[in-house]
Design a protein that fits this description.
The chain is α/β, with parallel strands linked by helices and about 350 residues long. It has 15 helices and 12 strands. The chain is globular.
């Protein structure tokens, strides 16, 4: 196990990489700890939860809502959780987002930590302190920014992770490499999903590098004023087509990254869009996608990254270096049409 402590303004977050869930017993008292997990994870890993007070919520994005928040809070009251309680979210991004949110509001705030169990939650969702829930169709509309006390990484959980969920994680990992780390990009070109699933050490190294990369970006810009926007690479177009065409998040982001690479070629003279599409393909992700430009432009009009008539688009100057560029909506429409 590798322990790393990262300071965040007043407090710090402890990271336990290459760790085992069982080590939680050395860190926390079961009497005062409340685990939150979901209905998919609990039956697959029951032995882990023995001896812990556990609240099991229904799995899936549809349940990242106020009804589930209310359910968790009622369970906490029943289990007599007080101000000294620690909540531990053991799950994917849905569980970690909702756990962080409940911890921020229960009795005006209690301590919390995460054990992410999807690749996406490990490298992305559980890091950075953003938490929250959806209100109807509005994703993450209600939430706070608050850093967890600890993150514990146990890749054993990934043994039961479906392939589609691995792909969601790989899309974010490739995103990280494109915007910030050319060496990681080259390393990914040498690896493959099959190899990473077999090689625990390489997988742990990759996870750790991605966590550090996201932590650095978030630390430099906790409240998303500049640098943190780079993490939106592939997400501008990605979000628009994800909902319109019911794509998985990973597929939508991969297509978004591919389009950002082509835009980068046209606007900045970026030379290697093919290298990016080849890597996406290597990790089982799609690149080309035919979409209705009008519909997508309507979605972008409402995008929260838009200021006046511009979209703050994330482009790639070269592999390992993302930049933020305001692009006029009308130019974007023209470019989308000819790609
Ligand atoms: N807070 C942030 O900064 C941030 C960043 C990115 C994403 N998110 C949020 O994260 C969520 C997406 O995260 P996600 O992809 O992990 O979704 P998720 O939590 O829905 O997990 C995906 C699926 O995998 C199942 N699962 C989880 N771990 C498993 C395991 N070990 N074995 C088998 N099945 C398992 C879950 O039950 C679920 O069905 C979204 O709600 C998104 O808004 C938040
Ligand atoms: Zn994403």
């Amino acid at each position: 196990m590798l322990h790393q402590s990262v300071r965040f303004n007043q407090q710090h977050t402890d990271f336990y990489f290459d760790a085992s869930f069982r080590q939680l017993k050395q860190m926390l008292k079961p009497a005062n700890t409340f685990i939150i997990t979901d209905t998919n994870i609990f039956p697959l890993h029951t032995t882990y939860f023995k001896g812990w007070k556990t609240i099991v919520i229904p799995a899936g994005e549809a349940h990242k809502n106020i009804a589930t928040v209310q359910y968790i809070i009622e369970q906490l009251i029943q289990l007599q959780a007080d101000r000294t309680a620690t909540l531990v979210g053991v799950g994917g991004g849905v569980v970690t987002d909702i756990t962080g949110f409940v911890a921020a509001i229960y009795m005006r705030g209690v301590a919390f930590g995460f054990v992410p169990t999807t690749l996406l939650a490990m490298v992305d969702a559980s890091i950075g302190g953003k938490n929250g829930i959806d209100i109807g169709l509005y994703k993450n509309l209600m939430g706070t920014i608050r850093q967890p006390a600890f993150l514990l990484y146990d890749t054993h959980f990934l043994k039961t992770l479906p392939d589609a969920e691995w792909q969601n994680g790989f899309a974010e990992i490739i995103k990280h490499a494109c915007i910030k780390n050319a060496a990681m990009f080259r390393n990914l070109e040498k690896l493959s999903p099959a190899l990473l699933k077999k090689n625990k050490q390489k997988l742990n190294e990759l996870i750790q590098k991605n966590v550090q990369l996201k932590m650095l970006v978030v630390k430099a810009d906790e409240f998303e004023k500049g640098e943190r926007k780079l993490l939106n690479l592939g997400h501008t177009l990605g979000h628009a087509i994800e909902n319109q065409y019911s794509l998985s998040h990973g597929h939508a982001v991969a297509i978004g990254i591919h389009y950002a690479a082509i835009l980068s070629q046209q606007i900045l003279g970026f030379k290697q869009p093919e290298r990016i599409s080849a890597l996406l393909t290597q990790y089982g992700l799609p690149t080309h996608f035919v979409f209705d430009t009008k519909k997508v432009m309507n979605m972008l009009q409402m995008d929260k990254k838009r200021q006046q008539e511009f979209v703050h688009y994330i482009l790639i100057e070269k592999i390992g270096k993302g930049i933020i560029l305001p692009i006029p909506l009308k130019d974007l429409e023209k470019i989308y049409k000819i790609i």
